[in-house]
Amino acid sequence: MASVESLNGHDHETTFVVAFDGSLQEVEAREEYPSIKVGYLQIAGVAVDLPAFFAARTGPFIDPRRLAKASQSQIINAALPSANIPARDGGTVTENWRREVFETFSRQGVDDFGTGTISLLDAIYYLHGSPEVRADTITVGVCPYKTEDDCSAKFIEVPPEGTSCPTCGRVVWPTDVLRTHEEFDEEGSNLTPLTRLMNSAERLLCVAYLTGFAKTAPSLLSRIAFVTDGPLAFFGTTAKLKSQMISFLSHLNNMLLQRGMPPPLLVGIEKSGLFVDHAHAVTKAIPAGYLVNLDELYIRQRVKRKTSKGLYGVDEFYGRRFFFKTTSGNTLVVTVPRISGQPYGDSPGCDSLDEYPTLRPILRLLDRIETRLYPDAVIPIALAHSAAALPLGTGSDVLQILAKDLITLSAGGRDSS
Ligand SMILES: [Zn+2]
Predict the structure, then answer these.
(1) For residue 185, how far is its CA from the centre of ligand 1 (angstroms)?
(2) Which of 67, 277, 360, 389 has its CA 20 to 30 A from that of 174?
(3) How far is the CA of 412 from the centre of ligand 1 (A)?
(4) In angstroms, rounded to a whole number, what is the distance separating the alpha carbons of residues 48 and 379?
(5) How far is the CA of 214 from the centre of ligand 1 (A)?
(6) What contacts 315, CB < 8 A, 6 or more positions away?
(7) Distance between CA atoms of 19 and 22, rounded to whole angstroms?
(8) Rounded to 5 degrees, what are φ and ψ at 91?
(9) Is there a contact between 94 and 173 (Cβ–Cβ < 8 Å)?
(10) Are the C-beta atoms of residues 342 and 350 closer than 8 Å to each other?
(11) Which residues surround ligand 1, an ion (CB under 5 A)?
(12) Spacing, Cα 203 to ligand 1 middle (Å)
């Protein structure tokens, strides 16, 4: 345990917070057998001007109109074909899903920088290169037709427009690197691949912002905090992107260091899950203004009691987890990237607080922007959360109507081809 004030680290003058959140829903467009499902995703990046935000705060209250003026959102949304929607060109349901994922990622992204849109697909290529130079191709580890057609092709180099598999000759999209098709169910629910997509899109949107600032106004980067909903990690089929993210961030920090600027502040905040439950259970033992550095042994013995294979977090995390108790008594579960290198595993020094020089400015900032309106949340995340929210309840009728339209379009396209 350590007090925030005892930490070494830069003193940032943070003037902007960009927060990311997403939501998803799967809607049944036809209930009778075989049921037809459509998945919806909405991702929001919300930029909050901190001086304007603090001006909107009077005592414990916030003037919503002034708060709205202090923030700006970038919304990404997608309707994705789920169960039983075949492709317009007669392809399979899985092929339809893969192509829609590719098209969504190609079309949508950030257009705030006056350099044209930096799409989620562009972000994948910057992630595999550096903030300054994007990779020309990325490697898709196994052919997407491995299971279906027994194609044995491995390590396929894919340019942004896609390519043909050198072995089976069928199309490989760059977004196949996310491998969501491996968990896709042609006839059932697809909440798992939708969740993977949503989480990757949130993190890639952050990469798009980091790239946009690095290209147009690098000096601003040191004055912005990027807050992601959930841990700084890529899970399941998308886990390979973790290593790319560590190297991308290391490039970015080096680039700034050469110009004498501190690294940008990046943090993930968890709203639910095993670690949030545990943080609540031990909150009495943490003094306000202190953080707990969760080491391997603690996680193994106290949080995740099941013995898991291998070292915790090594495959997924590009940040390290900490518990932090704010001065008003909220306990936050945060992940923060290491200055360079792996935050977990046998990488020397990964458990030393000195390797996380952004911790102090991040925690001091979170202390200022937390809110009692939502437990364990900070205002920018709450704003991103409402910006990303899909219509619920009676509102989901809208999604059903949209879903029916999508299917009619798809069927119409098929008839005419
Ligand atoms: Zn193939």
Answers:
(1) 20
(2) 389
(3) 30
(4) 9
(5) 37
(6) 239, 242
(7) 10
(8) -70, 175
(9) no
(10) yes
(11) 143, 145, 151, 153, 165, 167-168
(12) 28
Residue 89 alpha carbon to ligand 1 centre in Å: 19
Q: Would you call the peptide bond into 131 cis, given omega within 30 degrees of 0 as the criterion?
A: no
**Could you please report the per-residue DSSP string of 300-324?**
IIII--SPPSSSTTTTTBSSEEEEE
> What is the 155 CA–ligand 1 centroid distance (Å)?
10
| Distance (Å) from CA 125 to ligand 1 centroid | 22
390 CA from centroid of ligand 1 (Å): 37
What are the E-state strand segments in 5-152? Answer: 16-30, 36-49, 57-58, 61-62, 71-81, 109-110, 118-119, 138-142
- For the chain, the domains span 2-216+224-411
pLDDT of 85-110, one tens digit each? 776 777 888 998 999 999 999 999 99
CA of 160 to the centre of ligand 1 (A): 18
- In terms of pTM, does the model score above 0.85? yes
Which tens digits make up the pLDDT trace of 124-161?
999 999 999 999 999 999 999 998 888 999 999 999 99
